């Protein structure tokens, strides 16, 4: 059975080890950081590998809520707040921001596992329903058929290559989220040794076919140093 990857951001090293060891017993592989800047850098590169984030609020050099916002900008991923801040004000603010759960320290590690299991179950059901209820998506001049994996521009079907189609639908699955070149390599049938310039060429071809001007993009925006973001501004 494949282990699910968890990102833990916790500056208490004893608690860090305890959580990671316990999660491993329940088929979760834990990558832990005590420094928020390091955790953010890893998440920018490897966010596609993680299924959930466990986030402390009292961190060095960056408040946990600020880090929460930065993580959510990169990927819509479930996040559990794990903190000693037990006042109602912080809890309310956290849920207003969109945290998926709020655990006040100290707590039993088994409770954390149960919360993770429940959140991932809800999150996966939510994603499935989103695709079931949106068989066709209209974005500006594009009509996207999610069932048949077809894309139409002004009622004409676009002829993508296999790789272009994989990349395009990867963008559609991550609307308004950054997709790195590493994500594209790992989640498509591209060779693992594919060069960045080859990926850029594929994206350039997609832009051409959907009539997107890279200098004034209405669809695929280049994010310097990170990758690409497919925009759907409502």
Number of strands: 12
Mean pLDDT level: 88
Second rung of CATH, namely the architecture of the largest domain: 3-Layer(aba) Sandwich
Order of strands across the main sheet: 2-1-3-4-5
What is the first-to-last residue Cα distance? 40 Å
Please tell me about this protein's structure.
- The chain has two domains: 4-130, Rossmann fold (3-Layer(aba) Sandwich), CATH 3.40.50; 135-230, Arc Repressor Mutant, subunit A, CATH 1.10.10.10.
- It has 234 residues and is α/β, with parallel strands linked by helices.
- The relative contact order is 0.10.
- The model has no long low-confidence stretch (mean pLDDT 88).
- It is elongated.
- The protein has eight helices and twelve strands.
- The strands form three sheets. Strands 2-1-3-4-5 form a five-stranded parallel sheet, sandwiched between helices. Strands 6-7-8-9 form a four-stranded antiparallel sheet, with no helix packed on it.
- It has helices spanning 13-24, 36-46, 64-74, 88-97, 109-133, 162-172, 181-187, 196-209, and strands spanning 4-9, 28-33, 50-55, 79-83, 101-104, 136-139, 142-145, 150-153, 156-157, 178-180, 220-223, 227-230.
- The N and C termini lie far apart (40 Å).
- Helix 4 links the parallel strand 4 (79-83) and strand 5 (101-104).
- Helix 6 packs across helix 8 (196-209).
Brief overview, please?
This protein has 234 residues and is an alpha/beta fold.
């Amino acid at each position: 059975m494949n282990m699910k990857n968890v990102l833990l951001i916790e500056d208490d090293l004893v608690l860090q080890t305890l959580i990671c060891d316990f999660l491993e017993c329940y088929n979760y592989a834990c990558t832990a950081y005590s420094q928020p800047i390091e955790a953010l850098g890893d998440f920018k590169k490897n966010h596609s590998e993680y299924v959930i984030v466990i986030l402390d609020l009292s961190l060095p050099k960056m408040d946990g809520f600020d880090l929460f916002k930065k993580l959510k900008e990169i990927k819509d991923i479930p996040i559990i707040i794990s903190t000693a801040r037990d006042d109602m004000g912080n809890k309310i603010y956290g849920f207003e921001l969109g945290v998926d759960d709020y655990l006040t320290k100290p707590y039993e590690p088994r409770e954390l596992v149960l919360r993770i299991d429940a959140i991932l179950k809800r999150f996966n059901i939510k994603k499935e329903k989103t695709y079931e209820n949106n068989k066709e998506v209209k974005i500006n001049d594009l009509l996207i058929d999610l069932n048949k994996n077809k894309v139409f521009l002004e009622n004409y079907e676009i002829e993508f290559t296999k790789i272009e189609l994989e990349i395009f639908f990867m963008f559609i699955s991550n609307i308004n989220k950054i997709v790195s070149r590493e994500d594209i390599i790992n989640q498509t049938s591209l060779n693992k040794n594919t060069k960045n310039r080859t990926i850029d060429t594929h994206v350039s071809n997609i832009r051409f076919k959907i009539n997107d001007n890279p200098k004034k993009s209405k669809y695929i925006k280049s994010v310097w140093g990170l990758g690409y973001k497919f925009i759907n501004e409502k």
